[in-house]
């Protein structure tokens, strides 16, 4: 015991810290790889220089993010042996091959074609370069598929038997991979990655549009991002609803913690918009509730009932407050994304997509929202699974390696220091790249906000500062 923290608590904190750093990079690279493939395809089809310039701009950012994702992932994987060796021993026959498949089929695909995508356009020809770009995008999606198959199996285990020594032995690989929660988790995560990139692209483009409204690359990118926001966010909300129903079927305790339900409420379940979970007393304090809405969302009927936490043994509860608040952060950000997408659609309809400063500033504020939502969703999923590593079968306390608290604490401090220096520098470098416009020599670009100086686009065109052909981009 180290100042109230035992080895299990410190090991959980360490894994949470490292995986929180790691998850933001794959979420970004999954969406950005697909965005690059779209940009490259549009360039080949239309020969519009704006698409090529955007591709060249974002591929450099992708390369840095991809590298940080690889490094953080390697570091994270070592903890399976150092801190969680019992889990590795018992679940290894199932988890090990799936993670090996991810490396062999997905990571090698990404790494093998990455160099061609980054440097090969002039060397291998445009068609092969497009193929390489598509393979990088496919590789990132395959990586997500395998990793989410592992995570989903830990949430809803299937297709196995348990040997006398306690190991999980594979019986049916198709049942293991396509376990009950896998399709829902895969769709939800991939859409989250696409939205994460869409709002980063929107924020970066909005930043440059505030400085120069006639930047054609930023206009094109902002328009594409706003289309993604309004089209994909509703799909993500529906996917999340289906994922929630699946979780209710297989992990009802997690859903009860997410919703803050301790007891059933008469003939229907209200939706708790806010409250403070009181685990000691088994109730939700200061609750702000909407009658019937909980039943409608969770059972799609007005009088549906779900089990409350008090119907389960208390030792089976996850940390309720963490799950309750992280779920609300994720959902709140989702609806904020939908609101911004709707405002963008209104601005587009009125021909003012690039001319509403408050819309551009709102897009900048929402830039990190995808990362926050991904982290909040991961916390909801993983903390909500506690106290198990393999749900219902292997408890977290029984998964720990025979390590001492001081050793785990020392490595945790080392991780914190090294991560903040290395990844802090990497993130700072990415932000510096984003602070520069896609093409610094683009027509009409000058440092500083031209609008703030009182120069309207019409005056810039009349003065020859911007070519007249740039005037009609509202339809992008």
- Percent in helix: 55-70%
So how many helices? Answer: 15
The biggest beta sheet reads: 2 strands, antiparallel
Q: How many strand elements?
A: 6
- Poorly predicted residue ranges: 440-476
Across the major sheet, the strand order is 1-2
| Order of H and E elements | HHHHHEEHHHHEEHHHHEEHH
Oligomer: single chain
Overall geometry comes to globular
Average pLDDT across residues?
86
Class by alpha and beta content: mainly alpha
Report Rg. 24 Å
Beta-strand residue percentage: 5-15%
What is the number of domains?
Answer: 2
- State the distance separating the first and last CA atoms: 61 Å
Would you kindly provide a written description of the structure presented here, covering whatever features stand out?
With 476 residues, the protein is mostly helical. It folds into two domains: 7-260 and 316-405; 262-306, no CATH class. The chain contains 15 helices and six strands. The chain has helices at 7-46, 49-82, 85-119, 121-124, 126-155, 173-177, 182-211, 216-250, 252-259, 293-299, 320-349, 357-365, 369-385, 405-435, 457-462, and strands at 160-162, 168-170, 271-278, 283-290, 388-390, 394-395. Strands 1-2 form a two-stranded antiparallel ribbon. It has a two-stranded antiparallel ribbon with strand order 3-4. A hairpin with a 4-residue loop joins strand 3 and strand 4 (283-290). The chain is globular. It starts with 6 loop residues before the first helix and ends in a 14-residue tail after the last helix.
């Amino acid at each position: 015991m180290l100042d109230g923290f035992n080895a299990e608590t410190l090991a959980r904190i360490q894994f949470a810290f490292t995986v929180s750093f790691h998850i933001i990079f794959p979420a970004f690279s999954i969406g950005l790889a697909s965005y690059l493939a779209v940009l490259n395809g549009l360039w080949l089809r239309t020969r519009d220089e704006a698409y090529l310039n955007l591709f060249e701009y974002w591929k450099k950012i992708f390369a840095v993010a991809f590298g940080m994702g690889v490094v953080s992932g390697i570091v994270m994987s070592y903890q399976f042996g150092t801190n969680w060796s019992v889990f590795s021993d018992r679940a290894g026959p199932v988890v090990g091959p799936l993670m090996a498949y991810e490396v062999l089929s997905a990571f090698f695909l990404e790494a093998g074609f990455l160099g061609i995508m980054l440097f090969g356009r002039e060397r291998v020809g445009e068609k092969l370069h497009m193929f390489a770009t598509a393979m990088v995008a496919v590789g990132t999606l395959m990586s997500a598929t395998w990793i989410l198959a592992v995570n989903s199996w830990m949430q809803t285990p299937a297709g196995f038997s348990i040997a006398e020594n306690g190991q999980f032995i594979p019986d049916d690989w198709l049942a293991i991979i396509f376990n009950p929660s896998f399709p829902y988790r895969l769709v939800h995560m991939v859409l989250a990655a696409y939205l994460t990139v869409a709002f980063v692209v929107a924020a970066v483009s909005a930043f440059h549009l505030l400085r120069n409204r006639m930047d054609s690359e930023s206009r094109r990118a902002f328009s594409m991002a706003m289309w993604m926001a309004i089209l994909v966010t509703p799909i993500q909300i529906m996917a999340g609803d289906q994922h929630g129903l699946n979780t209710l079927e297989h992990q009802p305790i997690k859903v009860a913690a997410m919703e803050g339900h301790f007891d059933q409420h008469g003939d229907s379940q209200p939706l708790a918009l806010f409250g403070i979970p009181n685990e000691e007393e088994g109730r939700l304090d200061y609750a702000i509730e909407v009658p019937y809405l909980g039943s409608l969302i969770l059972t799609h009927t007005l009088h549906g009932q779900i089990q409350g936490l008090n119907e389960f043994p208390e030792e089976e509860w996850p940390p309720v407050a963490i799950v309750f608040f992280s779920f609300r952060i994720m959902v709140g950000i989702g609806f904020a994304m939908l609101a911004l997408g709707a405002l963008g659609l209104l601005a587009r309809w009125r021909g003012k997509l690039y001319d509403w400063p408050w819309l551009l500033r709102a897009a900048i504020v929402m830039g990190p929202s995808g990362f926050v939502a991904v982290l909040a969703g991961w916390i909801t999923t993983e903390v909500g699974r506690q106290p198990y590593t393999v749900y219902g079968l292997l408890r977290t306390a029984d998964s720990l390696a025979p390590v001492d608290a001081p050793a785990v604490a020392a490595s945790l401090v080392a991780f914190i220091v090294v991560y903040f220096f290395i990844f802090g520098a990497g993130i700072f470098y990415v932000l510096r790249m984003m602070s520069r416009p896609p093409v610094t020599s683009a027509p009409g670009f000058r440092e500083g906000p031209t609008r703030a100086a009182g120069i309207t686009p019409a005056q810039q065109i009349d003065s020859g500062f911007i070519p007249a052909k740039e005037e009609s981009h509202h339809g992008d």
